[in-house]
């Protein structure tokens, strides 16, 4: 067997081992109530209303911060293990080329918050992760968002992230009070905060006998309702009775 043929056969073997690990991970994740699904960039872009793009050029990016893909989110697990048997030849060809000294050409990614979505180069990411690389070269396009996305984000978290994006867009509280953190862990909480703001608006306009700009309502609510309650919760250590919840919850 020629050296090239041997490398290819070994790459096929590695692919089959990766496929097996993907199957095991998916079973274990299902038992634990977690997801091994890659995030869909299109879904994230729609929910978070991503619009403004900035070219960031060629960078070394952390492999464990790549959490999704553009159009191929069902082809790989969250750890970029292959999920489709018909990817075998392409996967093996990429790995054989890498072993022949061609290396892994830069991939193309979108950056959103602290995470990345692969535009082109899913197989390269898969192989790099199996080879235990920690970084990979990428051409980066960053999309602006006021929502914090980190590598541990799960698909179900997107509902909450989308609601937070709508709340920030409606209130602009992050402009009024920079670095504000009103993160929650349960869907529907931002609707309750909007109800509080509406109640605050009615009370203030009744007391002052005038129409009040909504931004003034938001600032008043944050300074005189939210902050005193948040400080009380923190000072009395009440979160110990509500593990895995936030002050805003």
Description:
- The protein has 249 residues and is α/β, with parallel strands linked by helices.
- 49% of the residues lie in helices and 15% in strands.
- It has 8 helices and 6 strands, in the order αβαββαββαβαααα.
- The chain has helices spanning 3-32, 41-48, 88-102, 122-130, 157-171, 173-176, 189-208, 214-235, and strands at 39-40, 53-62, 66-69, 107-112, 115-120, 135-143.
- It has a 6-stranded mixed beta sheet with strand order 1-3-5-4-6-2.
- The protein is elongated.
- It starts with a helix and ends in a 14-residue tail after the last helix.
- The model has no long low-confidence stretch (mean pLDDT 87).
Précis, in short:
By secondary structure, the chain is of the alpha/beta class. It contains 8 helices and 6 strands, in the order H-E-H-E-E-H-E-E-H-E-H-H-H-H.
Task: Give the helix/strand layout.
Blueprint: H1 3-32, E1 39-40, H2 41-48, E2 53-62, E3 66-69, H3 88-102, E4 107-112, E5 115-120, H4 122-130, E6 135-143, H5 157-171, H6 173-176, H7 189-208, H8 214-235
Parallel strand pairs: 1-3, 3-5, 4-6
Antiparallel strand pairs: 2-6, 4-5
Keywords:
single chain, 249 residues, alpha/beta, six-stranded mixed beta sheet, 8 helices, 15% strand, elongated
């Amino acid at each position: 067997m020629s050296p090239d043929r041997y490398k290819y056969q070994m790459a096929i073997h590695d692919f089959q081992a990766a496929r097996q690990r993907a199957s095991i991970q998916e079973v274990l994740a299902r038992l634990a109530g977690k997801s091994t699904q890659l995030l869909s960039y299109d879904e994230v872009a729609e929910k978070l209303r991503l619009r403004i793009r900035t070219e960031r050029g060629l960078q070394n990016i952390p492999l464990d911060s790549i959490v999704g893909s553009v159009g191929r989110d069902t082809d790989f697990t969250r750890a970029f293990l292959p999920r489709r048997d018909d990817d075998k030849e392409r996967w093996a060809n990429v790995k054989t080329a890498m072993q022949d000294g061609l290396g892994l050409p830069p991939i193309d990614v979108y950056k959103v918050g602290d995470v990345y979505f692969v535009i082109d180069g899913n197989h390269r990411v898969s192989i790099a992760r199996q080879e235990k690389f920690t970084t990979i070269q990428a051409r980066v396009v960053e999309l602006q968002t006021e929502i914090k996305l980190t590598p541990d984000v799960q698909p179900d978290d997107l509902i909450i992230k989308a609601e937070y994006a709508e709340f920030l867009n409606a209130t602009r509280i992050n402009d009024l009070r920079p670095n504000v953190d009103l993160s929650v862990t349960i869907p529907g909480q931002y609707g309750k905060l909007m109800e509080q703001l509406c109640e605050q608006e009615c009370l203030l306009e009744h007391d002052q006998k005038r129409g009040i700009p909504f931004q003034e309502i938001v600032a008043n609510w944050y300074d005189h309702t939210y902050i005193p309650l948040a400080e009380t919760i923190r000072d009395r250590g009440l979160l110990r009775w509500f593990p895995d919840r936030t002050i805003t919850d």
